[in-house]
Amino acid sequence: MRILLFDIDGTLLNTGGAGQMAMEAALQSSFGVTEKASGIPYAGRTDFGITRDLFQFHGIEDSAESWRGFLAAYCEQLPKALAKRDGLILPGVVELLHRLSKTTGVELGLLTGNLKAGATLKLAHYDLDHHFDFGAFGDNHEHRDDVAREALDIIRRHFDPHQPDDVWVIGDTPADVQCARAINAKVVGVATGTYTFAELDSCRPDYLFDDFGNVQKLFELLSSHD
Ligand SMILES: [Mg+2]
Fold this sequence. Notes:
Rossmann fold, 9 helices, globular, binds magnesium ion
């Protein structure tokens, strides 16, 4: 069984900054924050980690109540932000997912730093949600390697544990490459996010593409079995 774990932002789609916009709007509506945070990186990180940094920056208490309020506000703001921003599905993604999801012996899942609710909203906005049966998300883990470990646990529970894992991670940041290594997965990098081809190349993914425009080549790579 070949299992493909896709990242979302910068890999499948680019929301045009809707995620960050929704987080900032959620901080404003829940906690009255008007100042913009600076120096907090987003790409490749989990929303849990990003939100914790935002709480700290704005002096918001890191409590269960804060998290509940933030999550509810974020889920309310994200659809508005997605509608407002000019995002796009990245080249080749629609056809690639369509072909892979019809291929026997290939399962598609998500390995993303997004909150589960955020991932669902983003994918549904671009009509890509129906391709994915399972996923590991950034709700509970600060580090992406732990999201990858959770994905592996899910795979072992849901698929035949006697079959050798043939797990691949597909993503756009050095953190995607690193988390694939944490679970001994193969990794395909794609330079459609904020990192350049050269920056990703220095992390030594197994395969690296400028984009997924050459669908046939990607499809053959991702669906072929040794
Ligand atoms: Mg990404």
